[in-house]
């Protein structure tokens, strides 16, 4: 099962109340604006991106492969007037990484960008399994 | 003349350890799996001396210290043995053989253990004791890996695969 659906289920529970909601739609661009800009205070979760690399290489031409999956999520808010519960909701979004099981790396990196008066958070979930 | 390239599937660097004196027969040997690397050490002992008629030391060689070091990702059957084989090394695996301090024969094939026409394939043989097992694992690298050292007892000899 794609990790997106696991995280999405967790976020729907964690963000059921409060000022931030989560959409089931992908973060596509509608017109000139991406959906997270058009619909602020709504989190959009992108598709899984997978990379398979060799964790161990052997002299007999064999290997043990590892699969790294990254998923980006996007949330935009009004930079001048952010929601009162923003910090709590950001923590919930980051902690949604814990809903994915059977991986040995589960991380979430958050970056921010301000354009005009819009503050956009980009969350990068990263999971690695053998 | 030429370099020894082990990237071809029929010319892989291979290590076989075998019950002592059994001539590396398949039934009494382990061809080590999941090898990351192999290092063979043949260090000559030396004795240096000075003479009044020379401005530099002279040296003579003494006895050599020989060993084999390798790293591998652990295969359960090879590390712990299958527990049901007449061959001690297949029965007890690397750990049991090390723990029992059992002497083994070993052979390092430099580029394949099956004859490839037109290619010179050398191997080095010896006898020694398995030691230096240090199995390790951690959350960021969740496969058990271990170094293995074979402390060589006596001479190393060289040979060539079926010619």
Describe this structure in words.
- The complex is a heterodimer of chains A (130) and B (163).
- By secondary structure, chain A is an alpha+beta fold.
- Chain A has one domain (3-129): 2-Layer Sandwich (Alpha-Beta Plaits).
- Chain A is 20% helix and 45% strand.
- In chain A, strand 2 (29-30) and strand 3 form a beta hairpin.
- The longest helix of chain A is centred in the first third of the chain and has 12 residues, at 3-14.
- The radius of gyration of chain A is 17 Å and the shape is elongated.
- Chain B has helices at residues 76-80, 88-99; strands spanning 14-19, 29-31, 35-49, 58-73, 103-109, 122-131, 136-138, 141-152, 157-160.
- In chain B, a hairpin with an 8-residue loop joins strand 3 and strand 4.
- Chain B is globular, with a radius of gyration of 19 Å.
- The model of chain B has no long low-confidence stretch (mean pLDDT 95).
- Chain B has 163 residues and is mainly β.
- In chain B, strands 1, 2, 3, 4, 5, 6, 7, 8 and 9 form a nine-stranded antiparallel sheet that branches.
- Chains A and B meet through strand 5 of A and strand 3 and strand 8 of B.
């Amino acid at each position: 099962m794609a990790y997106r659906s696991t995280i999405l289920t967790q976020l729907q529970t964690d963000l059921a109340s409060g000022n931030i909601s989560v959409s089931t739609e992908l973060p596509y661009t509608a017109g000139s604006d991406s959906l997270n800009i058009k619909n602020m205070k709504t989190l959009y979760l992108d598709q899984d991106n997978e990379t398979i690399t060799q964790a161990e290489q052997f002299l007999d031409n064999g290997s043990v492969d590892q699969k790294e999956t990254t998923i980006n999520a996007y949330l935009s808010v009004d930079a001048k007037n952010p929601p009162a519960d923003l910090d709590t909701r950001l923590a919930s979004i980051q902690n949604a990484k814990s809903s994915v099981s059977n991986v040995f790396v589960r991380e979430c990196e958050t970056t921010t960008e301000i354009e005009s008066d819009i503050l956009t958070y980009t969350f990068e979930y990263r999971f690695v399994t053998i | 003349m030429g370099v020894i390239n082990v990237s071809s599937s029929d010319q892989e660097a291979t290590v076989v350890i075998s019950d002592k004196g059994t001539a590396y027969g398949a039934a009494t040997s382990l061809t080590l799996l999941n090898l990351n690397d192999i290092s063979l050490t043949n260090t000559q002992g030396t004795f240096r001396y000075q003479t009044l008629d020379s401005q530099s030391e002279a040296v003579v060689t003494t006895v050599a210290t020989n060993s084999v070091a390798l790293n591998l990702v652990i295969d359960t059957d090879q590390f712990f043995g299958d527990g049901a084989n007449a061959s001690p090394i297949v029965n007890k695996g690397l750990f049991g053989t090390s723990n029992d301090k059992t002497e083994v024969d070993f052979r390092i094939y430099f580029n394949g253990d099956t004859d490839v026409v037109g290619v010179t394939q050398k191997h080095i043989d010896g006898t020694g004791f398995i030691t230096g097992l240090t199995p390790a694992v951690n959350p960021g690298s969740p496969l058990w890996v271990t170094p293995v050292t074979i402390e060589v007892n006596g001479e190393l000899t060289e040979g060539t695969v079926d010619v």
